[in-house]
Specification:
It comes from Fluctibacter corallii. Its main location: membrane. By secondary structure, the chain is mostly helical. The chain has one domain. About 80% of the residues lie in helices and about 0% in strands. It has twelve helices and no strands. The chain has helices at about 1-15, 25-45, 55-80, 80-85, 90-100, 110-125, 135-155, 165-185, 190-215, 220-225, 230-240, 250-265. The longest helix has 27 residues, at about 190-215. The chain starts with a helix and ends with a helix.
């Protein structure tokens, strides 16, 4: 839940900066500053601490995460914050399916019911009858699919890889890959924007570490459902900074989402 607070903060900063900076710049600096915040850990563990037996899986996790980031930043720039963040809440519905197919993890009956309840909650939050499902909604859904795969790849890596190493490879690979598009899509950056970019990198790094540690401690099915909490933080930020309305559907949907998450956390077997 702490990681979701920080990720909501990253989303708000991206939306704020999108008026002055390009998407390529935002993606690159989000990753490069996150990478820089991890350098003290690198110096502490040395080269031996970076050795991994799963370079291919790290690369797969990094590329899928980077593509999801490009999609999501584009969505944030062109949609209100709360609906943009909430569209990603379809990812937890996909996590159990991916975890079942890829990781062979069991999905209990209670978890299945919780997913259905959560789906109803997200539907109420998004209010599809009032929302124009344009290209950015579909882009957010594609992003959700990539996020579900990404979360399960973290679970697979976390069996042998420490949290900081997983985040290090993601930030490093993403920084290198996103550097070249940024060169062809550059705009001047103000001092205030630099400060916001640094803060975004810090939030992203701490959030990634918290999320990775969470996946080391529990199944992606349970953790995936906990990401529903981001609806609360997105709604608060959207209301405070962009005066996005808090509707009855948002409140009722949030209650159902919290109830669904509570159902899966309290069960004894997964």
């Amino acid at each position: 839940m702490l990681s979701e607070v920080l990720f909501a903060g990253v989303g708000a900063l991206v939306k704020h900066l999108s008026t002055d900076l390009t998407q390529a710049q935002l993606v690159f600096f989000r990753n490069v500053f996150a990478f820089m915040f991890l350098l003290p850990w690198v110096f502490r563990v040395g080269v031996s601490g970076l050795k991994t037996s799963y370079p291919g899986l790290h690369l797969f996790r990094s590329i899928t995460g980077l593509i999801a980031m490009y999609c999501f930043f584009q969505v944030l720039a062109n949609m209100p914050l709360a609906p943009a963040m909430m569209a990603l809440l379809t990812a937890p519905f996909l996590v159990p399916i991916v975890a079942r197919i890829w990781l062979k993890e069991h999905i209990s009956r209670i978890t299945g019911i919780a997913i259905l309840v959560g789906f109803v909650g997200v539907t109420l939050v998004l209010e599809p009858d009032k929302t124009d499902f344009n290209i950015y909604i579909w882009l957010a859904l594609i992003c959700a699919c990539l996020v579900a795969v990404n979360k399960c790849s973290i679970r697979k890596l976390s069996g042998t890889e420490p949290s900081a190493r997983i985040v290090f490879y993601f930030s490093g690979i993403a920084s290198v890959v996103s550097f070249f598009p940024m060169l062809f899509d550059w705009t001047p950056i103000s001092t205030a924007s630099w400060l916001a970019l640094i803060t975004m990198g810090l939030f992203a790094t701490i959030g990634q570490l918290f999320m990775t540690k969470a996946f080391q401690l529990a199944s992606p099915v349970k953790i995936g459902l906990l990401t529903y909490s981001s609806v609360i933080f997105a709604a608060i930020l959207g209301y405070v900074f962009w005066q996005e309305p808090v509707s009855a559907g948002l409140i009722l949907g949030t209650v159902l989402i919290i109830f669904a998450a509570n159902m899966t956390i309290r069960q004894r077997w997964l």
